[in-house]
Amino acid sequence: MTLPQLIQSYRKQQTEVKLAKFYSVINQALKQSIAQNGDIVTPSFSTNENSEFLQEWCQTNITKYLKSLKKLKFNQNYYHIEFADGSNVRIYGGDNSVIYFFYCTDYYRLSDKCFQFSEQYGGIHNFTFTYDSTHKEIRPIFYYFTHSQKLNSCASSDRFGCAALIYENGWKVPKDYPLKF
To answer: What is the chain's mean pLDDT, rounded?
Structure first.
């Protein structure tokens, strides 16, 4: 293998490990919250006055159950969690009771650029999840799409289907993944 191939293989492997770990850690926190507090409520976030609810929601359902936190930050738009491994998540409230998790695998190197959902970072350094109240866990956005639809979404400019492709493949980047690490 050449040096560029080794670097690409290493980055791909690190992404797989971090995605699987993030998925497990957040869902364990949610399960602990449900066991202690009952079902998780996700009211509509269509107005700015719900920013305080987002902070309370994150503290009640997630952060108090996480052990590997390095730093927390909150502003009116999102709740930011930094993990000890350098990965981060920003949690946003959306319309129709949707809570989004924008996960960045390499925040130390990319800083705030990681949360710019562009072709440069999407599907390589950042991945989109949402809380699925039916299954009571977070899942990659578009996890219910067909494989072909996930591929098309991952190859598009928003890259939202990329986490779903890796999830579908047991947290391993599939051979037909449309992006290079």
So the answer is: 85
In this prediction the pTM is 0.88
Residue 124 CA to residue 175 CA, distance in Å, equals 15
Residues 6+ apart with CB under 8 A from 14: 105
Q: Which H or E run contains 21?
A: helix 3-37
Positions of E strands within 10-94? 69-74, 79-83, 88-94
> What's the pLDDT band for 99 if we cut at 50, 70, 90?
confident
Q: Indicate the domain borders of the chain.
A: 3-168
Q: What is the CA radius of gyration of the chain?
A: 16
The span from the CA of 53 to the CA of 85, in Å, is 28
